[in-house]
Write a structure and sequence with these properties.
With 606 residues, this protein is an alpha/beta fold. It is 29% helix and 17% strand. The protein has a six-stranded mixed β-sheet with strand order 4-3-8-22-23-24, with helices on one face. A five-stranded mixed β-sheet has the order 1-7-2-5-6, with no helix packed on it. Helix 9 crosses helix 10, helix 12 crosses helix 13 and helix 16 crosses helix 17. The N terminus is likely disordered. Zinc ion binds next to loops.
Length: 606
């Protein structure tokens, strides 16, 4: 019921060369044929042209690198589409051309056409939208996961699906004996899977009997292993890890198990995980990422660390290395989070507090880099928020952090959802406007889910934009619900405020990465069990998609080159496997790209 009909899912057909007919490409080369041969060689994910010279998994087939370029002056042309440009007029056109990574024409130009140096994709009526932009994720954490990581578990609906994804990863045939298949963070077994629990040791053995398997849920576990995984952890020391007979690992032992996998990770392993993470986001259609760090630490892995604890000076190394090799194929903007509250050892003088934030502001550039990788600013917070009635010292440090960021002329963010907390944020921002002037810096508020109309109006005066929580579908209420209150966000109130309001999933620890889950929730209010948990707070599919494209582009300060299909903008598009705008709600939630294009390169094809 959730799958599109066969009529909906006609695959786009790709032809190359000068033949004008859509039926017989003159060269006889089709990308689909090349993909088939690539699959036989174990290439699992993406196709990338010379502009980005790698695939997600392996680049052993030179034919793959030889097709689909647009940076060599050739043209990628999409015809016969239902192309939703998301421009101001919400134009829907049938043809778009791409050259040198940018849209060069957008309009209604009829049939396929072609010519030398033209690769034509006949969309056969498929729906096309701009690449999705995620304005609040912790994606670099996904790129650092140890093991051969299977992010697809967030797409599972039951344990049979989980087993299927794990078995499919093993079936690729590239995992050396003794190396782990892992899946950590993002998925929520209680909210998402019919059985509302982790798989047992026996169930994981059924899926993968001959490689160790390790699952780790959200920030801190619990974890689950198969027999080979149990054998491994039964043998480790310093610290030891207690594995229960059913394969579960709970409490501090789950974090200790994570530690043992992390300390065995090589840099090559991290390069592979980074490529896999990029392939996964391309598969979901999220082509630009604003990373929000999270609970950064400044040391090597420790047995006490949670999944979200990573060394915030070293966690980008693999991504940076791939970027140096021109092998990144999704866009990353890096925000810096600083998590230092009041430190008693530094004494009572505020001037001695916040050492890391002070160093960051002195030694880093904001919004520096290129179209594929660049820094952002401070987010999702400069210091942990605390109300004065909760902890006066921490509040003073938090307030001082706002001052330091404003004084440096940087963009800043905070993450609060409740009106009583948002009030402190709005008041502090108003103070910063008065003391330093911040309205030209485009500060942000993450979540903001229950902001009042008064607070929204005051934020508007300060040119503050919001990125709101699309992940509350993970609520686990049964029908009938214990309360009739909406769990938020109050989407219509936010959208009617006149502020720029983006939408996010806040993956990849507490929530999945998939943006269609958030857009389904924003438009239906249904949790993953189909229960209405946000009554009266729905928005339209157009509004949800606008938030995930145009508004998130604004949130990233990239509205001039991303977010819509318009001549001159960077060419990021998704060819969808169904019509997002017209399919049923349950089908819309399962939307995936049939093809993903980033910077004019086809980086994923289903
Ligand atoms: Zn977050």
């Amino acid at each position: 019921m959730s799958n599109p009909t066969s009529e909906d899912r006609k695959a786009p057909e790709i032809t190359e060369g000068g033949h004008p007919s859509e039926s017989e490409p003159s060269t006889g080369i089709s990308r689909r044929d090349l993909l088939k041969s690539a699959a036989a060689l174990g290439v699992t994910a993406a196709v990338v042209g010379p502009g980005r010279s790698a695939t997600a998994a392996v680049v052993s087939n030179p034919q793959i690198a030889a097709i689909g370029p647009t940076y060599d002056g050739s043209i990628l042309r999409f015809v016969n589409g239902n192309i939703h440009t998301m421009d101001d007029a919400r134009s829907v056109v049938n043809t778009v051309t791409i050259q040198n990574g940018h849209f060069t024409s957008v309009g209604n130009q009829g049939g396929p056409g072609g010519g030398p140096g033209v690769v034509t994709v006949n969309l056969r009526g498929a729906t096309v939208i701009p690449g999705l932009i995620e304005s609040h994720t912790h994606f670099v954490s996904l790129a650092n996961r140890p093991g051969h990581h299977v992010a697809e578990l967030e797409l599972a609906k039951n344990i049979a699906d989980v087993q299927g994804f794990l078995a499919a990863r093993r079936a690729v045939g590239d995992i050396p004996e003794g190396e782990f298949i892992t899946a950590m963070g993002g998925w929520n077994s209680n909210a998402q899977w019919d059985e509302r629990r982790l798989p047992t040791l026996e169930e994981l053995d059924e899926a993968v009997p001959d490689r160790p398997v390790f699952l780790f849920e959200r920030f801190s576990g619990p974890a689950a292993v198969n027999t080979l995984g149990k054998d491994f952890f039964d043998g480790v020391t310093d610290p030891t890890v207690a594995v229960n007979a059913d394969g579960s690992i709970t409490g501090a032992d789950a974090r200790a198990a994570l530690y043992h996998l992390r300390i065995r990770q090589t840099f090559e392993d991290k390069l592979r995980s980074t490529r896999d993470a990029m392939a996964f986001t391309a598969k979901l259609g999220i082509t630009s990422l604003l990373d929000q760090t999270l609970v950064a630490v400044d040391d090597d892995p420790q047995p006490t660390h949670f999944l979200a604890n990573l060394n915030h000076y070293r966690m980008y190394d693999a991504w940076l290395e791939l970027h140096r090799r021109s092998e990144t194929f999704v866009r990353l903007q890096i925000n810096f989070l600083h998590n230092q509250a009041f430190i008693p050892a530094l004494g009572p003088d505020l001037a001695d507090q916040l050492p890391e934030l002070r160093d960051r502001l002195k030694n880093q550039f904001q919004f520096f880099g290129d179209a594929m990788l660049r820094t952002g600013a401070i987010g999702e917070w400069a210091a942990p928020f605390s109300r004065p009635d909760q902890n006066a010292d921490n509040y003073a440090v938090w307030y001082e952090a706002q001052r330091l960021v404003a004084q440096a002329g940087w963009r800043n963010e905070n993450s609060e959802g409740a009106p009583e907390d948002i009030e402190f944020v709005v008041s502090a921002y108003e103070d910063m406007e008065n003391e330093f002037g911040i309205s030209h810096l485009r500060w942000g508020l993450q979540h903001g889910d229950f902001a009042t109309p008064d607070q929204l109006a005051r934020l508007g005066e300060l040119n503050v934009s919001i990125s709101t929580s699309g992940f509350r579908w993970q609520n686990t209420d049964e029908d009938p619900r214990p309360s009739s209150d909406p769990v938020g966000p109050l989407f219509p109130q936010l959208m009617e405020s006149g502020l720029h309001v983006g939408l996010h999933e806040d993956g990849v620890h507490i929530a999945p990465h998939n943006a269609f889950y958030a857009m389904h929730y924003a438009t239906t209010g249904l949790n993953a069990r189909g229960v209405q948990v946000n009554p009266g707070q729905q928005i339209s599919r157009d509004q949800a998609l606008f938030a995930y494209t145009r508004e998130n582009a604004w949130y990233m300060n990239r509205e001039d080159d991303l977010g819509s299909i318009e001549v001159g903008k960077r060419a990021d598009i998704l060819v969808l496997d169904r019509d997002y705008f017209t399919v049923s709600d349950s089908s819309m939630r399962d939307t995936l790209p049939a093809m993903t294009v980033v910077d004019g390169e086809i980086v994923h094809e289903a």
